[in-house]
Specification:
By secondary structure, this protein is of the alpha/beta class. Strand 4 and strand 5 form a beta hairpin.
Amino acid sequence: MSTPLLQRLSRIAPYFRTARAGFVAAFFAAVVAAATEPLIPELLKRLLDDGFGPQRSFPLWHVPVAFIGLFAIRGLAHFVAQYSLAWSANRGVLTLREAMFRRLQNAAPALYTQHNTSSLTNMLVYEVQSGSQQLVNIALTIVRDSLTIVFLFASLLWRNWQLTVFIVLLAPAVALVMRVISRRLDKLTRAHQAATDELAYVVEENVLAWRIVRLHGASAAQGARFGKHSQLLRRLLIKSATAAATSSPLTQMIAAVAMSAVVVAALWQGEQQGGAPLMTVGEFTAYVTAMLMLVSPLKHLSDSMAPLLRGVRALERGIDLIERTPEERGGTHVPSAESGGRARGAIELRGVTLAYREEAEAPPALDDVTLSIAAGETVALVGPSGAGKSSLVNLLPRFFEPTRGSVALDGVALPDWQLDALRRQFALVSQDVVLFNDTVAANVALGLKDGESIDSDRVRAALESAHLLGFVLGLPRGLSTPIGHNGSQLSGGQRQRLAIARAIYKNAPVLILDEATSALDSESERAVQDALERLMRGRTTVVIAHRLSTIEHADRVVAMDQGRIVEQGTHAQLLTAGGLYARLHAMQFRSS
């Protein structure tokens, strides 16, 4: 392994610190369980040497009491250890998972371009759980079996230290086997996790795009793609199983060599003493039994390397997410209390360039854009697809950072704003509506602070302005009706009007409307457009629209192409100028 195992475990330990009581209880229970192991050979010795002769040295009832009592203690100790570690594992998972989710919520947006949804979901929900369970369960095995080996080895030294030397000489061979196999398993574990992420991503894409896959008859091609990744994962799993299975027979072979050496040495010692027995039958049986009992914990320890490394690697991925993903950083500026925490809404971009990729030949999404928007002004951004309109508005709430240049709100650079205060100034209605699997009211009043309750009157007013109140009141539970995964129980137009109601409820000083009426029919569009126009009064509004008829009354139209502003002015001025806007307007109305 490139990094020592103890160093890797030290990264994980802080997240399980609150579960120390469980680990302590499990350790002492494991000590008790391990301490009972040498008592089994000792009971056999007493039975063989003192129990079968004419003069038995103990009452007969001692036998069931001793065996039943011994195994009852072992069973209770194993239960306490198992339960304590299960409690500790789930406590640690809770701590780690909460830390990961917090980092997802405050991570720099680049995280979501570097990882796909299935990878992050698999990491946070499944890998952390399975990794901790594997790690903690194998920790019980390692602690319990290591203690068992210590106690059994001590009993062997006490019974016959000369014979025990043979076992000591074979210990380096066991260590070498485990070291070589552990390196192989660690490499395969990393490859297995990467292959699992790729397979999950294929499944995610086909679940999300099932209509397109079926419409275009792409099922066979996607099936082949799935099969390719499945085969890769299968091969890696077989390699891991082969490497893990190799350790067990090698360990058993080493144990067989040790056993042979001990028996031969015992017989040889007897010959050197003129045939006099070196040990009694009971002593020899106890010694051999203790030796045989060493094989099982040694086998468990050798088999533990694979799940140990899988568990460590799974938890390391979660910790890497926490430690290596940069947080969003904001400043300290907040609007004054006199303004009620609201900005005026003046926006200024100076020489802004935004490049999503670092390659020099890749054209930037925005190229040296300078634009001033006065407080309360409505500015419409138009242009062909890829002109940079969405990239520009994504800079305003700091979903992306400009590569060069600066963006300011009310004369204060966006990085100097406190992030929460900055984003309270914006309401967004996008063509890609995102709704949560919650009630209608909860979706409209999204973003409540702790202890804050939903204002039902405001929700009703927002829904009415979005021309959705009548529909909602007709639902089985009204405002409290769940809307399903991403609003699956609503039509496209209803989903978009619900998003508009959310923006109305937020009542932010700056509105961003990205094709806000794209999914509405003509009648609904006119009604919602009226509501939006009332909402836009007195607020700074940035509108992205491909249907140019919806922005004719904007204070200013900004035409963009290839990341640059090519012209700006009123609707009438740009039509007269005969430039890009006029061409787009002519093509759209000619096609209609």
